[in-house]
């Protein structure tokens, strides 16, 4: 019990340092796992000591075994599902190709402007270049033709094609 409290206090003050030291092991040294396991070990140790006549070494062994089982259960039924459920509502740049938007800052023929794209995941604005190397005025509906690291390449959208 006191060990769990000491680890919680150390983690509070030195958490960033410990994250750096155990960077590759962060999935297995998840605070939920560590504190949950230590709490179960401490609680089962108290219960075994109070309600059994086991030798202290056997009590420690059983407590660690119960803690290991708790670690396994917490990891497989809490940590993994929470990690898999963690989803971003943003879309990647590659997913922007083919999206329809509107010019919010005029896109010059040989320069950059800005476009606004709406999606079910939220709206965003992106730096844009003209795919056809023609000026595209503010308020014009566009389609994203190509995506690069620095900008999206857009072309005017003919409403007749819709």
From TrEMBL:
InterPro entries xref list: NA-bd_OB-fold (IPR012340), NfeD2_TM (IPR058653)
Which GO BP terms sit in this record? Answer: proteolysis
* Hydrolase found in the keyword field: yes
Keywords carried by this UniProt record: Hydrolase, Membrane, Protease, Transmembrane, Transmembrane helix
From the UniProt record, which GO molecular function terms apply? peptidase activity
Decide whether keyword Membrane is in the record.
yes
**Protein name per the record:** Protease
UniProt source species: Sediminibacillus dalangtanensis
